Here is the input.
Amino acid sequence: MGKIDYIHTVQPGTGGIDDAFLNRYVLMSGERMIPYQWSMLNNDEKSGIIHDFRVAAGEIEGEHIGMVFQDEGLFKWLESAAYYVADHPDSPVRAWAQRAIDLAERAQQEDGYLLTWFQLKAPDKEFCNLLESHELVCMGNVLEAGIAWHHATGERQLLDVAIKLADHLCEYFMQDGPAGDLVPGHPGIEFCLVKLYRETGQEKYLKLAQHFLDRRGTDPEVLEKQHEREWDRPPIFPTWNTFADHTYMQIHAPVRQQTTAEGHAVRASYLYAGMADVYMETGDRELFAACETIWKNLTGKRMYITGGVGSSECGERYTGDYDLPNDTVYAESCASVALALFSRRMFQCTGDGKYLDTAERAIYNTVLGSVSLDGQSYFYVNPLEVWPDACEKNPSKRHVRPVRQGWYQVACCPQNTLRTLAGIREYIYYTKGDTLYVGMYVGGDAQISLQDRKIALHVQTGYPFNSTVDIRTDSQGAYTLALRDPGWSEETDVFLNGSRVEDCVREKGMIYIQRRWQKGDTVTLKLDMPARFMVSHPRIRANSGRVCLMKGPLVYCFEEADNGTNLSSLRLNPDAAVAEVYEPDLLGGTLTLSVSGLRIMEEGWDEETLYRPFRVKARKQELRAIPYCLWNNRGQGEMTVWIHSSGSEVS
Amino acid sequence: MGKIDYIHTVQPGTGGIDDAFLNRYVLMSGERMIPYQWSMLNNDEKSGIIHDFRVAAGEIEGEHIGMVFQDEGLFKWLESAAYYVADHPDSPVRAWAQRAIDLAERAQQEDGYLLTWFQLKAPDKEFCNLLESHELVCMGNVLEAGIAWHHATGERQLLDVAIKLADHLCEYFMQDGPAGDLVPGHPGIEFCLVKLYRETGQEKYLKLAQHFLDRRGTDPEVLEKQHEREWDRPPIFPTWNTFADHTYMQIHAPVRQQTTAEGHAVRASYLYAGMADVYMETGDRELFAACETIWKNLTGKRMYITGGVGSSECGERYTGDYDLPNDTVYAESCASVALALFSRRMFQCTGDGKYLDTAERAIYNTVLGSVSLDGQSYFYVNPLEVWPDACEKNPSKRHVRPVRQGWYQVACCPQNTLRTLAGIREYIYYTKGDTLYVGMYVGGDAQISLQDRKIALHVQTGYPFNSTVDIRTDSQGAYTLALRDPGWSEETDVFLNGSRVEDCVREKGMIYIQRRWQKGDTVTLKLDMPARFMVSHPRIRANSGRVCLMKGPLVYCFEEADNGTNLSSLRLNPDAAVAEVYEPDLLGGTLTLSVSGLRIMEEGWDEETLYRPFRVKARKQELRAIPYCLWNNRGQGEMTVWIHSSGSEVS
Here is the structure.
């Protein structure tokens, strides 16, 4: 065993994005989300986060405000701020971030420990209740923020906080005795420790990540036993035991023996991401085999078409194969961020483009859809079907909000969405040896380090509304360009300076073009991405008899604003022609899909009749679909992704 | 205002049932359910009910076992036992019941109070927490049992217990001061008080019922205020305030101003039944108008086709109009019993057969379906669609059990089902003046008192598997026979001694035949009841694109045992011919419905693909449906009432 020859990500700060589709999100994330979220951190009523750090730093008197995992807000924001500052070094964000970093440094204990809830409320009980405490996953955010800030600015201050914290963790959890048996109740520090190992070269961080993975599930009850032994206080979460079983926290079996995506969907993918990262650094094939098996189960049986995962609100968790209800769904935004993190790492392990198809599915549909176009309201839950009246009146659907919400006290999703948008570059470009990978098609410039050279690329595209991607290189020299060939593109054509390239290598979802590039060489991809009617596996009961529309990676949906009330009464014939219309004034400019369908009539029904012998009338209706990620930017109303099929389904 | 000229029910003990369809339930209820449930009452581990009464009577030492409403089990059982003993005076059930009655009498306090939980656990807090206590609804069961036992045996012992209790209630709640403002947290004593008024002629019981209705909702917070003022203990139900809002207990508005079926579905119909009963005795049109409005909302917008009501598990309650999910359903058995009680009273008020259509819908589908053919396992929740794997793995469906359950500690549903089966005669025959009503078609004999005469009838029918009903009178004389003409029978033919009767009066769902009857005269009804494809109102999202099969009052369903796994992949063309086949060896003898349908194939799908461009293949499959009430008598498997329609829905 030993480190494998894996693909490396490219950090933010290596070029600017200028993309017709993504600009609305990337600009908004920097100009609106970062300032708005900073104001939330500073708002004692909304979050209390800065307040808690100030109390912990001894600057003000007070009680801790908020949840045990309240701190994560500061460090996720700092990570996002770092990505932004990398591209905008003169922004005022830098000063805000510096204040937050100074504060974090002052709040950190002498021994390196840093989590304000425990520091203020249970200082003698640090690491005594890993079952409930979320300590380690929150500390992972410190590590990520420290690394990102170091990359962005070259400054070590926050990285040193992270190192001091990580050193404390190594000391505490690698000791002999009971602490050495413990594992995080909420996984998520493992991949952060690997990141810190890569950043510092200190093997002990990798060893700790490995240790947590090796121990996990060898004794499924280890955290309950610790709780019994060391926690003499009321539970942090009183209803915890109604949902937090062993699968909930992926502690039901040793990780190498896990075969299905289980439990809390954020924890799950954070864990799997850590497994993939440790495999990359150690070559531990068993870890990778488990990742592959779980990934197949996750994407082959337990994922919404939008890349949403975790179909149950209770425990925000996976349920069983093919159980993907659209209206009682959970599909937390954070879980799709985590799925993207996991999938990207699987690509790094393998070079297989299919993993990026899934990352893109999760990001372009659920993650983008989780934020409003003004950046100030958010979906935590991402339904595929919403009937506002039922959300209000039926408690089974109460968690499904028909409109984006304001800031929750623990606003995990808005911050995870922000760091994904601010750090989107990590999904776009990758390198390995003399190969430069383009994993997602996003307009803009890039200056990528490849084997001691700097390669400059310029991408121009209307993707995903348009199927053409032009990639111009402004550097000359020999290297390989690897372009993702999406699984949904049944025939992708490649041109070099206008001439079709017949001899490029196509392998596992990637197209490889190896040559000595001249300055100005332009590769053009023509993706095969007409709007398509999609159907789901017959075992997904909830989608039985239904179809939906996709164009490339984008799932489309039908809103009441375009199609009237009661979307369940609409019918689509999957043989119908779909018109693609770009509407520049709609939702910041979007491609809509129009198709002739039917509406079941209510004629002949009265207020007193619910059921009658079969007699149904329909009339024609032109239906219009918009990208799922753009839904609910025009007020409250019904929405559905899946529409009942008429006619030809069973021809 | 004054008593209206309403229709009277006919008690059990007025003839025997001998009916090809119902025998399996009626015989089973007497021979299996009554003894089994008696054994449960005597089982300290399963219920502790007899134990609690023995402790309250001072016969043994011990703590109260069970819930605050534990006692209801004894009195619902006694009511059922009374109905059985009325027809079987020599049964050993009589001795068991006598023991229970003696015990109840000994447990009753000197002042008449009788509820063992308060007597043993909070003797100083009687009636101090009507918000949570369930005291009054449980006491209603004492009244009903006392009356039923008196009818069955002529013995007053339990009736006197009931009277002593009711007198105590009148004294307590009709006083000036705060107690006079109180209303039951769980309605259900109101109709029992009216019953006791009818039994004893004592107006004060009617007055108390009226008082509770008049006060209800005038101050929606009256019970919270009492709780705040008088209850200094921990809540009886710690999670109470997560679901028990004002609509939950129908206290959100004065009852005469309520317009929709709201809240906990059992409480709701119990309340409405009381409103109808008080109207009958007082002529208070406003009460009746509210009943009519609510009933229209309930049956026109909030009822499953099976007569199940209350679509949400949280609060076991109504949600909103047309919100009737099949798989996350609640539809408690008790709620359908309560709906039948309410509907029967609406018939008594109006003579409109449509109300009995609904009572029959609730009883013949949900109530019968709630009990296994061996009488020892029960559905508390009655789903219209079950996928056992999802029930196990998805917490949103965890309350939906894929198989009938054993005895719950508070086995409300099994006992409500038992008293409905044992007392089914109350739904069959009715009288008013010189009119004898036949409200349900059940084979057997009846001796009915009508204006000082005894009318003997003999009914022979294969209903509901067969459309012919023969009703022979063995008495002569002039009177009117009123026969229910079900709403689903589009053309009901009537014959007298073999000749078609053209001139009978047909009015509001009833057929009236007035004549001087000769001994042996036989009326034959030919109901129009072929198996029919049914469709639901287009606003019921859950049934969009689906059809189901009914024959007369019976809803049919499709089980995995007959149709294979994944019932969602089946398709039915509502133009297809339905074959009706009587299968004598299946489920105690049943008519099945067979129809040629389709199954969507899984060919071409693999383990790693959940979504693909539209391409669907189907093959023919013969489908078989059985009556919904008989489902899950052949082991665990999928079941669905509604099947996706193919083809002609939108033609």
In short: Chain A has three domains: 20-301+309-427, 429-526, 532-645. The first strand of chain A starts at residue 8 and ends at 9.
